[in-house]
Inverse folding.
């Protein structure tokens, strides 16, 4: 059975914070992650925040480079879910 590819989105941060600056990738392309593992670190106007995996799988692509400003809901990375 082949892995299905899933787009994983930047979560919302509430309180009117609709965008964040990508400051670090913690999980690289090809890395295996489990639900709850830190994928990336982003910074909003209020604080730096860790983005965690919502499910387990293998990271197949990053959708942004460090230094990119992303809006909540944009695709952040792609996961081969298993």
């Amino acid at each position: 059975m082949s892995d299905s590819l899933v787009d994983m989105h930047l979560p919302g941060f509430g309180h009117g914070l609709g965008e964040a600056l990508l400051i670090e990738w913690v999980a690289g392309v090809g890395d295996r992650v489990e639900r709850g593992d830190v994928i990336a670190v982003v910074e909003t106007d209020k604080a730096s925040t860790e983005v965690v995996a919502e499910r387990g799988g293998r990271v197949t692509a990053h959708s942004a480079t460090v230094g990119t400003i992303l809006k909540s809901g944009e695709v952040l990375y792609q996961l081969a879910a298993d």
Observations:
- Residues 4-81 form a domain with the OB fold (Dihydrolipoamide Acetyltransferase, E2P) fold (CATH 2.40.50.100).
- The chain has a mean pLDDT of 90.
- Residues 26 and 40 are 5 Å apart (CA to CA).
